[in-house]
Amino acid sequence: MIQRLQVTALRNIARADISLARCNVFIGDNGSGKTSLLEAVFLLSRGKSFRHHQPKRYIQHHQPMVTVHATLSDYTTLAIQKQLDATTALRLNQNIVYTQSPLTQQLPTLLIDPSTMDMLEQGSASRRQLLDWLAFHMKPGFHSQWLAYQRLLKQRNRLLKQSRQLSASQRQELTAWDKGLANHAALIHHYRQQVFAAWQPYFARCLQALLPSYAGKLTLSYSPGYDADHPLDEQLQARMTQDLQQGFTRIGSHRADIQVHWHSHHAHDDSQQPLSTATIKEQAANVLSRGEKKLLITALKLSQLPLLLADYEQTSATEQDLTAESIGKNQHNSAQVPSTTDSPFRFTPIVLLDDITAELDEHAIQVMLSTLSQLPCQVFVTSLTREILPILEQYWSDYKLFHVKQGTIAWAET
Asked: I need a surface site. Which of 117, 138, 240, 410 has the fewest CB within 10 A?
């Protein structure tokens, strides 16, 4: 959990230094800096903004860089500094780190905001990121495979853009890259499949709470981005001519997608058990109203958190069993047994709720806040007015309230 947050030169926030609680509420007018504060937390966690990828768009005018620093409740410190040219400096416990992943691991951050409410109609990237965020935190081997795949994909696309005709040596090089892509893609698909299967029941429960009339009628599907029953390199070689014409790689793990489908009905026998999978009539985006789509996207995001924490609890319990067994077998051995602190996920998730009263009705807000209050997570909520406070008080009696005005963030009495 973030205990202290310091932000310098982010949009209209010249400098902020605030102490935080488990639930934190930021109230202010549009343009006051509420969302910018959430942006700072997201930047520290992900290494990028959820509003603009170019640092010059969010670094305060006439300033050379933006800095975000956080002290966690266990006294771990994290810091990121972004310059106008996108040069990035990262620190973990005052030590320089060279990749974003150690900070992301320490600060798993889930964002629910208006900009994500069109996810169903947008391209596959935002939906794929939902699955990959889970895979990153639940499967320790996923990220290295994903990074290696991205590096090879970048090299392949660069070569495809250079020429419509490849020399023999270039084709040989491409063949080697394709074999590497295939190996990484197979493992990425394996991790994604496991996470997707674990996610399904949690999504179903959230859907039942937020859209009960659609329970059993909406289902998730996962597409790996290529025919996973055959090696990717063989498929890439078969599509070489078309890829050269287009100048990029058209299939692979980078084209994976998550879709939500609406089913018309279920057929049952006398035992009330489904006889067969219902006919898929439509993509859910073509059936639901705008309000229902918002609830569906909220269910997609909100269901990730209990899954993440349940995975951690299961891992910890397994490690405790292994530790007890190891102690029993090795009482004479001074070697250390595995520690539960070596779990792949052991950090407090951060949930950023930006202006949810403008997007969701009171029932949906109640479901969301009730769910979050029962989980070991830290919550940041922004709102235009104090109307949300009576709802919050039902779940967090000790929340902290901040007023935001022209980039100044001041603690207020609740």
From this structure: 410
